[in-house]
Amino acid sequence: RRQEEDAFMAGLLHDIGRVALLCQLGQNYSNSVLEHADKAHADVCGSERDALGFDHSNLGGELLSSWNLPAFLVEAAGGHHDSEIDPAKSPILSAVTLADILASRAQPNVAPNSPRQQRDEVAKFFGVGTDEDIVSYHAACQLRFELFGAALR
Q: If I label 106, which of 63, 123, 140, 144 is the partner at 20 to 30 A Cα–Cα?
């Protein structure tokens, strides 16, 4: 396998814990966790831990592990919100973490008013070190979304 393919698959599955929570708890998850985090400007993972005793990344890592999926997928799902990530040792986890941070700054988001992680060491590892880089990245993504949307009409 190529590392790019592994990173792509890890990116697709990294929030599987949130999908499971939404499927199992539905509106209760939205009301008790997401809306609370949004209104209180609180961290979503912290709100999950307060309400449930665990967060979506814990659940996602456990789910993927129980399905005997490769360790890099388990690490991405279980560790993408960890405070200590070494990009040189875990490039796939780091790529997923950066993508998650950048995507969480875009709209729509599950809790737009909750604080976002700052992972400068991960961003710098991938050459996205300044707010200007992030603004440029978002503008490029927005253009792609618009082009894709126009093609589907």
A: 63
